[in-house]
Amino acid sequence: MIVAKRAPAYNFYGNTDTGLTLRWGKTMEENPLRAPWPELADISISNHCTKGCGFCYRGSGDNGSFMPLESYESVLDALTSPVYGSVFQVALGGGEPLEHPAFLDILKATAERGIAANFTTNGELVDRSLAAALDGLVGAAAISTNWMSGYDPRKAVVLADSGIKVNLHFVLSKESLQDAIGLLEGKFNRLLEGVNGVVFLTYKPKGRALAQSCLSMNDSRFKEFISKISLNSCRAKIGFDACFVPLLLRYTSVDADYVDSCECGFFSIYIDELGNASPCSFANDGRYRFNLSAYSMNQIWNNCFEAYREEMLSVKCADEICANAEHCRGKCSFYEQISFCCT
Asked: Which of 22, 201, 218, 307 is least enclosed, having the fewest CB within 10 Å?
């Protein structure tokens, strides 16, 4: 399915079958500041998970709540504009989405609306029966881990064998740095069969995640990790979350034209299982949290988030020698701990 959105100074094209997306402004050379309607919605369909990972930023447990199917369908309806249509894709998470009793129905409701669905899982419940049931309902799946000794490579193979694109989401903290370096050096290539890409996620001190495990530029291993990014030997493609973008632009040879600054609140939106909308799933306070029972999606996106956008755009880079400062949106609005090269 082809999704196209147009507005003054904004154009978007997306193909839900291939995942290809294109975005441009008045001309193909111009980048729009923000979208008039979200392109992507990050939706937590529950806060329930029985695994209890120490890095869980949501602090999910085995008594967490689920978003009812009817509520999820209402969220999708709210995300559909009479002018711009629906969001292009949703990223489903939790909690553990595969533990949601209506997970397959949620995927079907998404597909019926022509929206591409992706999900993130700890991988515990992945098997061939599930993979077969997911056929035609998801664009990609991500398996999260923070150490390679706890990663089961068979899970990615099972999903890949069913035609599902699989990414490994590796949480990058002080404790996981050595494995992260090993991934870049190719030491774990034998474990990456079926993996399309390894995406490094910057550890944030939220939920069960602790501040002392955050990355630090004073750590020589972190500097070693950064030095290996440009010339790595990983068999899979590598990528990074938006929080890592300032480091990529400042310390690597990455082409700035292929790097997007943080898109939260500018092109994407987060909605939790209670119907609270925020610019980002990692928001650690209620400054920019608005419930869909009290506000329309149009109000939230085009009015309520304006103060957040102004705050983000007001950040100025303190590094005068950074050649790519103009391409960077600056530090995180919520966490000083991951503002590595900005003040």
From this structure: 218
- Predicted TM-score of the model (pTM): 0.93
**Span 4-36, pLDDT tens digits:** 888 989 999 988 878 888 999 999 888 899 999
Q: Give 319's contacts (C-beta < 8 A, 6+ positions apart).
A: 250, 325, 341, 342
Pairwise CA distance, residues 280 & 263, whole Å: 9
Distance CA 301, CA 37 (A): 7
Asked whether residue 6 is domain-assigned, the answer is no
User: Three-state SS for 256?
Assistant: helix
- The C-alpha atoms of residue 321 and residue 319 are separated, in whole angstroms, by 6
Domain that includes residue 75, residue range: 37-338
Q: How many domains does the chain have?
A: 1
Kindly list the strands in the beta sheet with 197-202, ordered across the sheet, starting from the edge strand earlier in the chain: 237-240, 197-202, 165-172, 140-145, 116-121, 89-93, 40-44, 268-271, 276-278, 290-291
Q: What value, to the nearest 5°, has the Cα angle with vertex 97 and ends 95 and 98?
A: 125
Please check whether residue 217 is in contact with residue 176, taking contact to mean a CB–CB distance below 8 angstroms. no
